[in-house]
Amino acid sequence: MIKSSASATRSGPCAVHQWIFSSLGKKTVVAVTGMLLVLFVIGHLIGNLTVFLGPDALNAYAEKLHSLGPILWVVRIGLLAVVGLHIFFTMLLWKENQKARPKKYIASNPIGTTVFARTMRLSGLIVLAFVVFHLAHFTARVVDTSYQSMTTTLAGHQVHNVYGMVVKGFSSAPMVAIYVVGLFLLTFHLSHGLSSLFQTIGITNTRIRKNYELAGRSIAWLLFLGYTSIPIAILVFGLGKGAAQ
């Protein structure tokens, strides 16, 4: 009986571990982390689009985030963990698929036959590098150290001039090119990632496949248009001209 009890105690965490690293478990982790990251990308865009409402709107949004203090850091660390899990389990699935399919399919109809699918790993790694650059550029502010001293007055209080920082950052053609290319690759990645999300967790059939492929690509390209509208509006149309002080 003692042996049985000890065995039962060990079976709990072991069973969880076995499920997470099973094929279904890995697919579930990739799908859930992918959905969380897409929701963040959408939310981040909504906040960024306040740039079109003027300096006070964007600076107020940024100050609201800054006022969260420790909570903001918990969210940031959580996002990093989600990114890490997504990459780790995606690579595990890729290795699993490589072992299971040493030879090319003789006859199949997989969802991943587009150029988006074939470049998933490469685009994912480049997007990761782009995200690191973006964080260094606007969050850590080490790409241009002059961002550190940019301040403005908001409701009678001195705050960091995020609006001016963004305008200055996107007044450079090479910087805008970096962002447009990075966002294009992100869109490439999302075009397949969103389309294959339901297949990853096993919800798929030939009848509805084209519908969610179209929906996934439409969402990805709408995000691309939303994000790139900001640097293009600043560089090409002079949005916020004179705000970078």
Note the topology.
Layout: H1 2-20, H2 23-48, H3 55-66, H4 70-100, H5 115-118, H6 120-139, E1 151-154, E2 157-160, H7 162-169, H8 173-195, H9 197-200, H10 206-235
Antiparallel strand pairs: 1-2
Helix pairs in contact: 2-4, 2-10, 6-8, 8-10
From the structure above, extract its key features:
single chain, 245 residues, mainly alpha, 3 helical TM bundles of succinate and fumarate reductases, two-stranded antiparallel sheet, 10 helices, 2 strands, elongated
Describe what is shown at a glance:
The protein has ten helices and two strands; from the N terminus they run ααααααββαααα.
Gyration radius, in Å: 22 Å
Calculate the mean pLDDT score and round it: 85
**Structural class estimated from helices and strands:** mainly alpha
The helical percent reads over 70%
Order of helix and strand elements from N to C terminus = HHHHHHEEHHHH
- The parts where pLDDT drops under 50 for at least 5 residues are 105-113
**Strand sequence of the main sheet, in spatial order?**
1-2
CATH topology descriptor: 3 helical TM bundles of succinate and fumarate reductases
- Determine the CATH superfamily: Fumarate reductase/succinate dehydrogenase, transmembrane subunit
The number of distinct structural domains comes to 1
Q: State the CATH class.
A: Mainly Alpha
Number of helices: 10
- Shape verdict: elongated
